[in-house]
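I had to read the description of the data format several times before I understood it. For illustration, here is how one protein appears when written out as sequence plus structure tokens:
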Amino acid sequence: MLGRITDGISRSAETAISGVSEALFEPVIRLGVTGLSRAGKTVFITSLVANLLDRGRMPQFGAAPRVEAAFLQPQPDDTLPRFEYETHLGAITGAAPHWPASTRAISELRLSLRVRPSGFLGGLRGPRTIHLDIIDYPGEWLLDLSLMGKTYTEWSEATLERIAHRTQAEAFMAQARAEDASLKLDEPRAQTLAASFTAYLQEARAAGWSDCTPGRFLLPGDLAGSPVLTFAPLPKPLEAPRGSLWREMDRRFEAYKSRVVKPFFRDHFARIDRQVVLMDVLGAIHAGPMALEDMRRTMAEILGAFRPGNNGFLTSLLLGKRVDKILFAATKADHLHHSQHPRLTAITEALLREARDRAAFAGAETRAMSLASLRATIEETREHNGATLDLVRGTLLDTGKQAAMYAGQLPEDPNHLLSPARKGEAAWLNADYSIMSFAPARLTLRPGDGPPHIRLDRAADFLLSDRLG
């Protein structure tokens, strides 16, 4: 206890000293970027940085006229891997463009901006340097926030109930239901259960489900095979004596929270000023009503975890520093004709409505937006059976051939999707929403232009402009 108090005082002092230094000398904006499965975090960061370095495609970025120069610098945290910006930029802009590898661990990148102050005194003060530190981390780690306020019993009951009817969980559920957790711990059996649960999580993520936690089961790194990743949800037995499988699973679940989840959010997440959460809403719609409801519920848990004040565990981790702006972005807007973008944004806002009400953000500003970090398609219109169809055309990822896609007409009223999703309908009624996977298009960039995008400039304006005054 004394050690935790001393550590807390030390961290508070470091935070205060850092805050004074930033306010007096060179301000720092710490932007966290994460996202659910296949949302495009790596491409978002790469395109954002490229378009902040060359701002020709950023007309809606209000601070752009005041940015005199932008340049990459060594990151401040020597213990984190550097975000491989140059490698990822080469992947999407090279002669044979391809999507870069997905995020598998935390990384960081510092972009420094020389900004001319605005207002009456701007000409007197001269330009100043503002650092943008971008922290990239897997979305699965963000979902672990929801575990912090749960016991092993609560987590097991909720997880088993939620996945009971998913085809991906059939093998694991059969093992879990057959297990007598009151018996003495048998380590090979525990490892088999954990491996089966991990296999379910991998299949669920591939199928488009959002609630794939614990996150480190999917991205174990150097923790692979350790007891802290060797547990699984089980039905609670009538008795759980000392040394039983249940008691050991309970202990390992608590160890996961204290030794994996809490240090990450204490050491990294607690220092974030602003946050981007990327969402593959189109993918969830394509997967069906249950996948969309799963995304809605997952976002509610995420936003609830962000809540300061009475959310005691997170308040203690943040040590007084709050995330004051959060952008929720539906990616892959280039898979739809621009005429449907307002509907995609409205669906995203509706998905977040209940979550935002529950979170009660204590002053934090949130926004929903549809965007494409890198535009991979062009738009065209065709006549088909007497009807006019607005299409998008691009290069198919699997074949390399050109193809045009009509994704279906999104409803004007988001409740036409959210209502059957909440009811647990198996499929959409009288609707078929299609999706294709497109490869990046070959680019020829003019000097001063970053990669083509959709509304990335508006995202940057929301996240950064007020701090670049």
